[in-house]
Specification:
The complex is a heterodimer of chains A (113) and B (112). Chain A contains no helices and eleven strands. Chain A is mostly beta strands. In chain A, a hairpin with a 5-residue loop joins strand 7 and strand 8. Chain B is mainly beta. In chain B, a hairpin with a 6-residue loop joins strand 10 and strand 11. Chain B is built from no helices and twelve strands. In chain B, strands 2, 5, 6, 10, 11 and 12 form a six-stranded mixed beta sheet that branches. In chain B, strands 3-9-8-7 form a four-stranded antiparallel beta sheet, with no helix packed on it. Classes of the chains: A mainly beta (113), B mainly beta (112). The interface between A and B is medium-sized, with 28 and 23 residues.
Chain lengths: 113, 112
């Protein structure tokens, strides 16, 4: 158990819908990262938050957004869902600064039908 | 461009045999290097990491990895594989407080 929790574990929804994925980082970790894992793209970085502020953006679609709340949990919002958004979404957390080892949650498997 | 290459998509070994999974990276400076393991339907578990110092690092579950700067490699090794090691292994690079760049993974199959 990494100490990072993600809910829900599975999500099945229809095209055009909107979903919210939730992540709680390890106690004391200020940084939260979101990654997408799909068969064709592999593991791709989406976005990073540090202590409530957006720190870095990767290959995140404009239909996707995220935020980190004062209690440090984070939510990833996916809207206008398409079939191609079906993937595993992972959240990871790390302490501030080096060494930046990231600990991953169990993931949320999103299926868009 | 920053990238990670895992040349072996799929490796099959017999239980008790030794294992080496290859990882090569392209990065502007000496990166932080990681190996993660993912069992089916599970998240990624950190096996080991290299930041600096001794180029041979020990990890959990009996794994070790060696950083070779001249070859831009960070290969993962285990002297004797157990059936429970069957999983997908990912090499990743990054720098402090930054995103990780992952390789495409190597799927390990272990035969009894």
């Amino acid at each position: 158990d990494s100490g990072v929790t993600q809910t829900p574990k599975h999500l099945i929804t229809a095209t055009g819908q909107r979903v919210t994925l939730r992540c709680s980082p390890r106690s004391g970790d200020l940084s939260v990262y979101w990654y997408q894992q799909s068969l064709d793209q592999g593991l791709q970085f989406l976005i990073q938050y540090y202590n409530g502020e957006e720190r870095a953006k990767g290959n995140i679609l404009e239909r996707f957004s995220a935020q980190q709340f004062p209690d440090l949990h984070s939510e990833l919002n996916l809207s206008s869902l398409e079939l191609g958004d079906s993937a595993l979404y992972f959240c990871a957390s790390s302490v501030a600064g080096p060494p930046n080892e990231q600990y991953f949650g169990p993931g949320t498997r999103l299926t868009v039908t | 461009a920053q990238s990670v290459t895992q040349p072996d998509i799929h490796i099959t070994v017999s239980e008790g045999a030794s294992l080496e999974l290859r990882c090569n990276y392209s990065y502007g400076a000496t990166p932080y290097l990681f190996w993660y393991v993912q069992s089916p339907g599970q998240g990624l578990q950190l096996l080991l990491k290299y930041f600096s110092g001794d180029t041979l690092v020990q990890g959990i579950k009996g794994f070790e990895a060696e950083f070779k700067r001249s070859q831009s490699s960070f290969n993962l090794r285990k002297p004797s594989v157990h059936w429970s090691d069957a999983a997908e292994y990912f090499c990743a690079v990054g720098k402090a407080a930054d995103k990780l760049i992952f390789g495409t993974g190597t799927r390990l199959q272990v035969f009894p």
